[in-house]
Design a protein that fits this description.
The complex is a heterodimer. Chain A has 8 helices and 10 strands. Chain A is of the alpha/beta class. Chain A has 2 domains: 139 residues, Rossmann fold, CATH 3.40.50.300; 65 residues, no CATH class. In chain A, helix 3 packs across helix 4, helix 3 packs parallel to helix 5 and helix 7 packs across helix 8. The longest helix of chain A is centred in the last third of the chain and has 23 residues. Chain B has one domain. Chain B contains 12 helices and no strands. Classes of the chains: A alpha/beta, B mainly alpha. The interface between A and B is large, with 44 and 37 residues. Chain B: It comes from Nitrospirillum viridazoti CBAmc.
């Protein structure tokens, strides 16, 4: 492996991040780094802590411990600069169903302070790219689930972010919509040098050219390019590596738990 | 971020609120019909029960419907504030609140913009009500339609800010019915909206003081005096102070480090 160039500022840098809701520890000492152009899959089962991680990175609330920086801007100290560089597709659908596609996107553009003319231009461009330009004046309620997701992706990109975060973006989509979304986002990584964090519980969304972060019960079990993670676990595929890592983790946890009691 | 960026953001938030209000027909319709129904029912019901003597700002004996009009204006704004509070809680449950909160603008500004947007909607509703009420022979002096505007804005801000506070402290949508019972109804009935306070004083001194301490009373009185071109300084002060207090609480409630979002996990998992 060639060492990653450390000169460039990481698009997203998370270190020593822990968070608890009351007695439940949602994240334990999580750390990773995304370079521009990286397509990184955050892989974990439901409840692994992916959504908590997203909430902390997007500053919905602050962590108790740890540091998050977006292109060098600390999320606590320079939230405005950090959030301006970030586009987010949340797990739950977040469009106004009674408004048209364009009205939804225009609202988002205004939340980033875009001028009317710039917003119109960017909305057209992004809708064109996701193949929904002719639906611009359709109310979101009349769109299919796959189309709504594409609108949400277009919305996340209207202000030209250099870091794109997607939390379980393919949940509930059919195969074709899923394929479209993955291809489109991977194309963005290459063509715009965009850093992408793609959270999912579907292992096949991380192919061999992706990087992966395996998150389990709030802890990062391993991370790196998919073939390396598999090789380290001593198995041929990521699926097998995931099983191995989570079983090992379960073993140590039970062992520790037993010793503590 | 320069002032022009802030202005664009504010414009976008107000526009969305206005679009949502007009495009949700049911909400639009009920917002207009509710006060008229109340006007019809209360005016008919209390008309003969309550004789209203000459009290400021009125200069003559007035029919009961004229007395309750300012209270109903304040009620429109109270409901509007609670409606936007409900939609904030709903947005948070559904996740669409997140799209607002990940905007790079400071959170206090986003909340204030949200508040101003809801005030714009509530002031428009208040004027539509006044237009219809004119046919009910609720006809304040022509200048009153102008002088009532700042009062409507100020009371709209207070009740909208109250809505924001509640939305930040209500944990789940299901709890909203409780808020209706414990906020809207006591606030409305223990106030000068439906009956003059001297009447209340005759029956219960305790209730009288509760009414006096109720900021909704002062919103009502502020609107009542303004509608007749007069100033109610005490009420204006109370309403302004309460607005400030509620706004501080709301910003605190939505603070990423302390408030409710962190305690309940932000509706995530």
């Amino acid at each position: 492996m060639t060492p990653a160039p450390q000169l460039a500022t990481p698009a997203l840098d998370v270190s020593g991040l822990s968070h608890a809701f009351g007695p439940r520890q949602a994240l334990r000492d999580v750390g990773f780094s995304l370079a521009p152009g990286d397509f990184t899959v955050l892989l974990g089962l439901n409840g692994a802590g992916k959504t908590t991680l997203f909430a902390l990175v997007t500053r919905l609330y602050h962590s108790r411990q740890g540091r998050i920086a977006v292109f060098g801007h600390d999320i606590r100290r320079q939230p405005s600069a950090a959030l301006a560089a970030m586009g987010v597709v949340f797990q739950q659908p977040t469009l106004d169903l009674d408004l048209t596609v364009r009205q939804n996107l225009a609202y988002h553009a205004s939340l980033h302070g875009l001028s009317g003319s710039r917003a119109r231009l960017r909305i057209e461009e992004e809708l064109e790219r996701v193949g929904l330009a002719d639906r611009r004046d359709t109310r979101v309620r009349q769109l299919s689930g796959g189309q709504r997701r594409r609108v949400e992706l277009a919305r996340a990109l209207v202000h030209d972010p250099a870091l794109l975060l997607l939390d379980e973006p393919t949940v509930g989509l059919d195969i074709e919509s899923r394929r479209f979304l993955i291809d489109h986002v991977r194309h963005l990584c290459r063509s715009r040098d965009m850093a992408v964090l793609w959270a999912t519980h579907l292992i096949d969304e991380a192919d061999d050219t992706a990087k992966v972060i395996v998150l389990h019960q709030g802890q990062v079990l391993d991370q790196g390019p998919v073939p390396q993670v598999a090789a380290r676990a001593g198995v041929p595929t990521l699926r097998a590596a995931f099983d191995t890592l989570t079983h090992q983790h379960q073993g140590t946890r039970q062992h520790q738990g037993g010793a503590a009691r | 971020m320069t002032p022009i960026h802030y202005a664009r953001c504010l414009g976008g938030i107000v526009k969305r609120e206005a679009l949502r209000w007009t495009q949700q027909r049911g909400r639009f319709f009920s917002a207009l019909v509710r006060p008229l129904v109340w006007l019809a029912i209360f005016a008919a019901g209390f008309h003969f029960v309550l004789g209203v003597s000459i009290i400021p700002p009125y200069e003559t004996y007035i029919p009961y419907e004229v007395y309750i009009a300012p209270g109903l204006l304040a009620m429109i704004q109270l409901f509007n504030g609670m409606q936007s509070s409900l939609s904030m809680v709903y947005d948070r449950e559904m996740g669409s609140m997140k799209t607002l909160l990940v905007s790079p603008f400071p959170r206090w500004f986003l909340l204030t913009a949200k508040l101003l947007a809801s005030v714009v909607v509530s002031v428009v509703q208040a004027y539509i009500f006044l237009a219809i009420a004119w046919f009910w022979e609720i006809d304040p002096p022509p200048l009153g339609y102008l002088t009532v505007l700042p009062a409507l804005i100020l009371s709209g801000l207070m009740l909208g800010a109250l809505g924001l506070v509640l939305s930040s402290f209500i944990r789940q949508l299901e709890n909203f019915a409780g808020v209706m019972n414990f906020v809207i109804f006591p606030m409305f009935f223990a106030s000068s909206a439906l009956y003059p306070l001297w009447r209340v004083k005759e029956s219960s001194l305790t209730l009288y003081w509760i009414c006096q301490a109720n900021p909704f009373t002062h919103a009502t009185e502020l609107i009542r005096f303004a509608l007749y071109g007069q100033m109610a300084p005490l009420s204006a002060g109370v309403v302004a102070g309460a607005t400030l207090l509620f706004m501080i609480l709301a910003v605190w409630g939505y603070d990423p480090g302390r408030g409710l979002l962190a305690r309940r996990g932000g509706g995530g998992e």
